Amino acid sequence: MAKKKPIIDLKSKNIMYQEKDKTIKLLSFKKSNMTIDIAIYESGKFIKNSNIVFAHLPKNIKSLIKPL
In sequence order, which ranges of 1-68 are alpha helices (DSSP H)? Predict the structure, then answer.
């Protein structure tokens, strides 16, 4: 039986959302600790990579990922 990957790559799904004046792009989802690696853009320019917990995502974005 194949083992499930603890990390899900989200780059190919191109999931993005707006928060204040920044665009957040989801990069990968780590199932083990329920965190999301993100890239933050401001005015189309890359600012930094960061990570946030799954619970802090908007509901419509959470429904696209469906981790469970």
Answer: 59-65
- Cα 64 from Cα 34, distance rounded (Å): 15
Query: 26: closest CA among 2, 59, 1, 49?
Result: 49
Can you tell me the distance from the alpha carbon of 2 to that of 28, in angstroms, rounded to the nearest whole number?
A: 20
- Considering only CA atoms, which of 23, 35, 21 is closest in space to residue 65? 35
Report the pLDDT value the prediction gives residue 2, as an integer from 0 to 100.
Answer: 56
Rounded to two decimals, what is the model's pTM?
Answer: 0.84
The pLDDT, as a whole number, for residue 1 is 52
Q: What are 34-48's pLDDT values in tens digits? A: 999 999 999 999 999
